[in-house]
Design a protein that fits this description.
Layout (H helix, E strand, L loop, with lengths): L6 E4 L5 H14 L8 H9 L6 E7 L2 E8 L4 E6 L8 H12 L4 E6 L3 H9 L3 E6 L10 E6 L9
Antiparallel strand pairs: 1-2, 2-3, 3-4, 5-7, 6-7
Helix pairs in contact: 1-2
């Protein structure tokens, strides 16, 4: 597999350490505080509910991104910083959209301009803003949905 070749596959328990590393690296590079140690993040990843869908994007360097979702919500989509703007996020988001064609919602930190612009380019619309009093980062969040006709009240 060449460095520009990307494979998407369901994650396994063996991917936990790599997914935790992607999570921490992406948040750190994006200026999003990570109030947990790497070991705490790894324990969190290992504890994801079996009902969640988790897919990993990988190339010949290993895991370069992942997406985790439920039937109505995209919980996580992170890409390793050295692979930003190379189609990994778009590939993962397309996968989620294919699995959830009726639509879904997500939260993004208001300060994360890069992510807000990414989702806007892919047809997501802002439906609400929330203060940072319910997340450990203490950051305001923007609630987005796709597609814009998706009923927000159904979540």
């Amino acid at each position: 597999m060449g460095s520009d070749d990307l494979a998407l596959r369901p994650a396994t328990a063996d991917d936990a350490r790599a997914l935790a590393a992607v999570h921490v690296a992406a948040r750190t590079a994006g200026g999003i505080p990570t109030p947990h140690s790497e070991d705490e993040v790894l324990a969190w990843v290992r504890g994801w509910p079996a009902a969640d869908a988790v897919w990993v994007a990988e190339d010949d360097t290993g895991a370069v991104g992942y997406a985790r979702w439920t039937p109505t919500w995209l919980d996580d989509l992170y890409v390793r910083p050295d692979r930003w703007r190379r189609g990994v996020g778009t590939a993962l988001l397309g996968l989620v959209q294919a699995h959830l064609p009726e639509g879904f919602g997500l939260y993004v930190f208001a300060v994360n301009r890069r992510a807000r612009e990414f989702y806007a380019r892919h047809g997501f619309v802002e439906v609400a803003r929330h203060p940072g009093d319910h997340n450990p980062e203490g950051l305001a969040e923007v609630e987005l949905t796709w597609p814009d006709r998706w009923p927000v009240g159904g979540i």
